[in-house]
């Protein structure tokens, strides 16, 4: 997703459509964050899942380290935009490597079938 006024309007449309699917049609939405996940994806549909999964060592941020440091005029800690650090802060539900991801998703979908939203 490119940053700009058109993409910001698109982000709102995507978020609104996702809301319709999740709440009115009661669908299960799993968001998988790979490296890198930045910008509009982080600001919108990447963080709206019922379950949010990240891959190990994934770079996840709204803006890059340099942009944040220049904007806030402060230094941010090294590693503060890595999946493991963000998981400890509660940003998402799990860190799953790609190899077992298929099995984890299968279990989540089976659980959802047993206990629908």
Question: Your description of this structure?
Answer:
This protein has 117 residues and is mostly helical. The chain has one domain (3-112): 2-enoyl-CoA Hydratase, Chain A, domain 1, CATH 3.90.226. Helix content is 48%, strand content 9%. The protein has a three-stranded parallel beta sheet. Helix 2 (39-43) links the parallel strand 1 and strand 2. The longest helix is centred in the first third of the chain and has 20 residues, at 5-24. The radius of gyration is 16 Å and the shape is flat. It starts with a helix and ends with a helix. The mean pLDDT is 87. Residues 1-117 form the CoA carboxyltransferase N-terminal domain. Acetyl-CoA carboxylase is a heterohexamer composed of biotin carboxyl carrier protein, biotin carboxylase and 2 subunits each of ACCase subunit alpha and ACCase plastid-coded subunit beta (accD). InterPro entries: Acetyl_CoA_COase_Trfase_b_su, ClpP/crotonase-like_dom_sf, COA_CT_N.
């Amino acid at each position: 997703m490119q940053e700009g006024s058109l993409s910001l309007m698109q982000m709102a449309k995507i978020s609104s459509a996702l809301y319709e699917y999740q709440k009115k049609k009661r669908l299960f939405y799993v968001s998988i964050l790979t490296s890198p996940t930045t910008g509009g994806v982080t600001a919108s549909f990447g963080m709206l899942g019922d379950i949010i999964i990240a891959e190990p060592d994934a770079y996840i941020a709204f803006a890059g380290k340099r942009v944040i440091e220049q904007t806030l005029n402060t230094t941010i800690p090294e590693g503060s935009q890595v999946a493991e650090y963000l998981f400890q802060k509660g940003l998402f539900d799990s860190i799953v490597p790609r190899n077992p991801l298929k099995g984890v998703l299968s279990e989540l979908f089976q659980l959802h079938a047993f206990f629908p939203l």
